[in-house]
Amino acid sequence: MTTVRQRRVGKGTEAAEDQPSEETNVKPDGKIPSDHTGGKLWNILSVTVGGIVAISLGLLTSVYVATLHENDLWFSNIKEVEREISFRTECGLYYSYYKQMIQAASIQQGLHGLVYDNKTESVRTINILERMNVYQEVFLSILYRILPIQQYLEPVYFYIYTLFGLQAVYVIALYVTSWLLSGTWLSGLLAACWYITNRVDTTRVEFTIPLRENWALPFFAVQIAAITYLLRNHLQPVQERLTLIAVFIATFLFSLTWQFNQFMMLIQALALFILDCLDMLPTAKVTWLYIIQISGLLLVCVLQFFNSMILGSLLISFNASVLIARTIQKNLKKGGLINRLGKLILHVLLVLCLTLLINKFIKKILNLESDEHIFKFLKAKFGFGATRDFDANLYLCEEAFGLLPLNTFSRLSDTLLFYVYVFVLFLMAVAAVVVAFRNLSGSNQVRLMEKMEEYTITLKPDAAYSLVHTVLFGCLALSTMRMKYLWTSHMCVFASFGLCSTEVWKLILKCVHLYTSQRAQVIKYSIPIITLLYISYKFWPGIMDELSELREFYDPDTVELMNWIKSNTPNTAVFAGSMQLLAGVKLCTGRTLTNHPHYEDKNLRERTKQIYQIYAKRSPEDVHGILRSFGTDYVILEDSICYERRHSRGCRLRDLLDVANGHIMDGLGENEPDLKPSLYPRFCEEIKKNLPSYTTHFTRVFQNKTFHVYKLAKHK
Question: Which residues cross the membrane (predicted)?
Fold first, then answer.
């Protein structure tokens, strides 16, 4: 088991550029009074100072997470095999392709090895560039080979420093988004500080470096910043075109670097759809964003050799359905309230039906089943019937795919982030309801709205998008803990924007009959500054203590296993075992695998379930036959899985296998009535007794406190 242990002693006030301080429009095509505050010189000075602060905070964040990584593992001092083992589970698999490209005789041979790979899945040749999002590893390895840095920087450092550098891009993008929304870079400063002080809940880059989301989320943040700028009023045509190009590039890079991009952008498309239906965004810009999403995803599809999972994505079906439905319903935004609501309901139903029909048709034509495990998981998770499906239960039993723990909110509240976020969310949600109702009704015809005019807050298109974005991604995070990083980072942006927003404080002061322009401006800057001082006072000592705490990587059993494999098995040997461990085997030893953690392939999921029969109640003959059918030479058994205690009964891997096989689970507790006792004992336990029925097929060749390696006989 990989652990770390304690290391032994030894070795101001500024004006917004191009952002009106107050707006009287409700609809996106409304007229806005010109902004005359401040001079050009002051604006230039403000932008310069704000830009310097943004870059400085980004670089500081990059150095901060890099230092934490070094202090936690003593990365600079440990052996190469220990560094590679520290890339856990799927992280090790992705990094192995970077290593493979670096070690190839030429770039062409390296690419050929990825396109015709026969070591990731035994007895199969697969195209890694089609199956996995590893273009970033390819690009980085080529860059390392052509730059004159080999003498000064090891490949692993070039890799991890790139990821830590992307954190600078991430923080700068969050900073700029908040700045654009509020009109003051003080808001960006507060967003960046919240991101850093809530690091446990906003990023996990320092201990899961090669994870796909650590590549993708910085580009997603850049895309959101570009969309925020695009949705501003009165952009010049040149500005709009350049912003659309920036949105496309960021969307493409986000899609290229993460296999779950389509699901994240589907939520984004839903946000655009909701706001467009409520007439809170310019329809022309929303149309461009739909087209950009589709074109970016299709370009990635081409680069991934026409990956069928991309073509069958709900995002493409949904966006196409929206565009088709618009051509059918041309007068969607005309008429009174009842008429508009009727049209909207019909429009939503039409889009939903078209999406399902188009998606069903595409999947039927392509015979696509790569993502069926995701829908099985969602069906079981949200209570649409119990399931015995092994893949769905494997996800359901993982904490990362469970509900967001309540202690997350207590941590976010310690920095005041959650309190401010809820406060701003409530105000903005009320404003959104009022504005949406006024848009659907027509403000000149609704007397109630006229009465409330003194107290209502206008909702700019960029703020409206930010509101719906944070609500939808908040729902995603609450339902699936692993996705919280998409929400918490934007939470920092949204809360800081609200705290520094003139409109928010104007509404509050008007409600208590205390509004003056000067008073609103004073509060707009003083409250964020007080918040920043509080955060600095409370968390600066903790950050300094964290940076001074020194640990080191310690996993002698896994190191011993990897060294034994490299020294005692042929390069062509095929290994079977758990997905997580085999990723490390490929990275550290280069041996061929039977299965691996990249689970987005139906054949691989079936293969993994079969390989995992080593932890089920099966006969030695059955297990041997299964393993040999995949060309297995050696099988690695882990005590941590065979005698697992991390999960409760019903969620242990052996329990999932027992239920899937129709067998009664071990231990005290209830079983479903149709489950029956197995005719055989558990394989991973019984094989250690060296009974003749087992030694005929398996010979133990390595053993330590954690792992047992058996060589398979080839006579059957």
Answer: 41-66, 179-197, 217-235, 242-258, 264-281, 312-329, 341-362, 416-441, 462-481, 487-509, 521-540
Amino acid at residue number 581 = L
Query: What's 696's domain CATH number?
Result: 3.40.50
- Is the confidence at residue 4, as pLDDT, over 70? no
Output the 3-class SS for 28-87. CCCCCCCCCCCCHHHHHHHHHHHHHHHHHHHHHHHHHHHHHHHHHHCCCCCCHHHHHHCC
3 state DSSP class of 705 = coil
- In sequence order, what DSSP letters do the residues of 142-176 get, joined into one string? HHHHHSTTTTTS-HHHHHHHHHHHHHHHHHHHHHH
Block residue for tokens 């701003």: 424
2 has pLDDT over 80 = no
In this structure, what token pair is assigned to residue 153?
């920087």
Hey, what are 24's tokens?
């009287």
Taking a C-beta distance cutoff of 8 angstroms, is the pair 119, 587 a contact?
Answer: no
For a pLDDT cut of 90, what percent of the chain falls above it?
74
**Structure tokens, 453:** 């005019």
Rounded to the nearest integer, the mean pLDDT of the chain is 89
Hey, CA dihedral for 379, 383, 388, 391, is it positive or negative? positive
> 562 and 517, same structural domain?
no
Residues recorded for the chain: 716
Going by C-alpha positions, the residue among 491, 447, 460 that lies closest to residue 473 is 491
Report the DSSP beta bridge partners of residue 634: 575, 711
In this model, does residue 682 exceed pLDDT 60? yes
Q: Are 229 and 180 in contact (CB under 8 A)?
A: yes
308-345: string of b/e by CB count within 10 Å (b at 16+)? Answer: bbbbbbbbbbbbbbbeebbeeeeebbeeeeeebeebbe
Determine what percent of the chain falls in helix, strand and coil, rounding each to the nearest 5: 65, 5, 30
The residues, ordered by sequence, that sit 6+ positions from 279 with a Cβ below 8 Å of its Cβ are: 27, 28, 333, 436, 439, 440
Query: Which residue range(s) make up the domain with 183?
Result: 163-548
Task: Write down the pTM of the prediction.
Answer: 0.91
- According to DSSP, the β-strands at 574-576 and 634-638 are parallel
Q: Do 566 and 522 sit in the same domain of this protein?
A: no
What does the pLDDT look like over 637-672, one tens digit per residue? 999 999 988 888 888 999 999 999 999 998 888 888
Most confident residue range from 258-267, 361-370, 383-392: 258-267
d(CA 309, CA 25): 42
581 and 542 inside one domain: no
pLDDT the model gives residue 11: 41
Q: Is residue 449 domain-shared with residue 586, that is, in the same domain?
A: no
Each residue's pLDDT tens digit, 442-457:
644 444 444 444 444 5
> How many domains in the chain?
2
Q: Is the pLDDT at 52 greater than 90, yes or no?
A: yes
Taking CB atoms within 8 Å and a gap of at least 24, the contacts of 593-599 are 593/119, 593/120, 593/121, 593/122, 594/121, 594/122, 594/627, 594/630, 594/631, 594/632, 595/121, 596/90, 596/93, 596/120, 596/121, 597/89, 597/90, 597/93, 598/90, 598/93, 598/131, 598/132, 599/373, 599/391
Model pLDDT, residue 29: 41
Instruction: Give a yes or no: residue 34 inside a domain.
Output: no
Helices (H), 367-454: 372-381, 390-396, 407-414, 417-441, 447-451
Residue 153 lies in a domain: no
Where does residue 367 fall: left (phi above 0), alpha (psi -120 to 50 degrees), or beta otherwise?
Answer: left
Task: Give the model's pLDDT for residue 385.
Answer: 63
3-state class (DSSP) for residue 280 = coil
More confident residue, 37 or 129: 129
Give the C-alpha separation, 313 to 260, whole Å. Answer: 10
